[in-house]
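quick q for whoever's on today - can somebody do inverse folding on this one?? i tried earlier but teh output was garbage lol. tokens:
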């Protein structure tokens, strides 16, 4: 049971550190980023960071490239702040679930307005 809780605690600690560190990055490609969650497997060798970024598709791709290039710095920051045998490799993934929710909401409003407009 304790082994199942540890990755969750480590993931939350990573999320907090990254949420503080990413806005400090000097890379102009990185826009406004919100770290939603971090997933860490039981072996703690990898961390998948899910984020959202504001802006159009070009801005989001730019943010993704900036985060990818900042991985080594962010990994070193995690290594200094969290005491683990191995500092995990970081993988950044944009969480598109919010975009999907907004699109569905938009479609439902459109359907509703078409239904009342007839």
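ok took a stab at it. sequence:
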């Amino acid at each position: 049971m304790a082994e199942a809780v540890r990755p969750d605690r480590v993931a939350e600690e990573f999320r907090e550190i990254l949420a503080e560190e990413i806005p400090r990055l000097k890379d102009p490609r990185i826009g406004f980023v919100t770290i939603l969650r971090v997933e860490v497997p039981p072996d703690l060798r990898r961390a998948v960071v899910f984020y959202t970024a504001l802006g159009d598709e070009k801005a989001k791709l730019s943010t993704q490239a900036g985060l990818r290039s900042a991985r080594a710095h962010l990994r070193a920051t995690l290594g200094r702040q969290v005491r683990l045998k191995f500092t995990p490799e970081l993988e950044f993934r944009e969480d598109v679930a919010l975009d999907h929710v907004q699109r569905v909401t938009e479609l439902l409003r459109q359907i509703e307005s078409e239904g009342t407009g007839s």
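fwiw The CA atoms of residues 30 and 66 lie 5 Å apart. also The chain has one domain: 2-117. so keep that in mind when u check it
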